[in-house]
Amino acid sequence: MTTPAVESPRSPHRPDQDGTPRRRRRTGRWILLSMAVLVAAGAGTVYWLYSGLNGNIKGVDIENAIGDDRPEKLPTSGQNILILGSDSRAGDNAALNTGKVAGARSDTALMMHIPEGRTEAVAISIPRDTLVTRPECTKSDGTTVASAKRVMFNSIYGQVGPACVVKTVEQMSGIRMDHYMEIDFAGFQGLVEAIGGVTVTVDQDIHDKSSGLDLTAGTHRLDGTRALQFVRTRHGIGDGSDLGRISLQQQFMLALLGEIKKQDLLGSPTKTYKISDKLTAALTTDSDLASLTKLAEFGRSLNGVDPSSMETIMLPVTYDKIDPNRVVAAEPQATELWKALRNDSTIPESAKKSPATGG
Predict the structure, then answer these.
(1) What are the two backbone dihedrals, phi and then psi, of residue 254, each rounded to the nearest 5 degrees?
(2) DSSP, res 186
(3) What angle do helix axes 47-56 and 269-281 make, rounded to 10 degrees?
């Protein structure tokens, strides 16, 4: 999948002493799907603003739920964050044309890897239709759910909960997740509305009755509703599988980061607060990040990461031999990909190629 690079205008601002342009140093904070630092920037200087935003954030005790059955944290592993887009049909999401399926699913899954030094990032998309082995997990009520084979990846969230999704990814990859973030559909829509929309370019007409998206080939400014339709579209592109949707999600992620960078949101406290309020209301994190202070600290630690250096890769998959409507991890590509991330080494080109493309 090839997504158009987001062009960064040459900064007119003089560089800092280390030679890094000031605008880049500021906007580097908006990495990680803009989550951490959008919250940090909106923290404000008065207590009632801080208290309101801080109270929006929900936390999940991933460490306690998973226990000790986790990969070792390696010195070479950098920072690894699992980011989920939740498609719960409840509450505000019920009005978003997300379908009639009961419960919630992890409609979008990104494993963000930030190497040591934190000057670049890579995002691994895990197709939601991937068949995986779900490990034994503990639900939030304390009950144990037995391990199961050939489970569709996006069903794990609704069946067992977010901690089990983290545990599944850890066992798939052999990589310990440092953090977890989740945003639901309603929050995603509100975020795009708050920044005034996002511009994307498509090279073919897209007509998807399921998502409601109706676009002609060319450049479009998407509002919150159409942005949501865009990242959820699957039947209007490629072979109608989840793989085509992933290419749109990756394209939109880069466009969103570029939009935030272009708007210089740190120079607009009112807009920053509006965005932060929308985002934190729909944000769930691991308990270690579930406060504005912790998110701000984490955001500052990503200061050197440049959006233009981010690489997006789909987990290499192949069509399942039993059910062609599902996919499984392709070997040896998947093993090579996870190994490179664990070792903080260069990802081989062969590990970026997926036999199943959704075309």
Answers:
(1) -65, -40
(2) H
(3) 30
| Cα 42 to Cα 53: distance, rounded to the nearest angstrom | 8
| Closest among 1, 22, 2, 248 to 10, alpha carbons compared | 22
Rg (C-alpha) for the chain, rounded Å, is 19
pLDDT per position as a tens digit, 47-70 = 556 677 777 888 889 988 998 889
Give how far the C-alpha of residue 176 lies from the chain's centroid of Cα atoms, to the nearest Å.
17
* Mean of all residue pLDDT scores within the chain: 78
In this structure, the number of other CB atoms found within 10 A of the CB of residue 181 comes to 22
Of 281, 259, 254, nearest in space to 182 by CA? 281
Which is it for strands 218-222 and 317-319: parallel, antiparallel or unpaired? unpaired
Q: In which element (H, E) is residue 243 found? A: helix 242-263
Q: Say whether pLDDT at 348 is over 90.
A: yes
CB contact set of 274 (below 8 Å; sequence gap of 6+): 194
What does the pLDDT look like over 219-248, one tens digit per residue?
999 999 999 888 888 776 766 666 777 778
Only one residue has tokens 């490179």, namely 340
What is the per-residue pLDDT across 117-129, written as a single tens digit (0 to 9) for each?
A: 767 789 899 998 9
Distance CA 309, CA 304 (A): 11
Strands of the sheet with 58-60, listed across from one edge: 58-60, 283-286, 179-184, 79-86, 106-114, 122-125, 311-314
Question: For residue 296, is pLDDT > 80?
Answer: no
Q: How far is CA 297 from the centre of its chain?
A: 20
Which amino acid appears at position 84 of this protein? L
Q: Model pTM greater than 0.85?
A: no
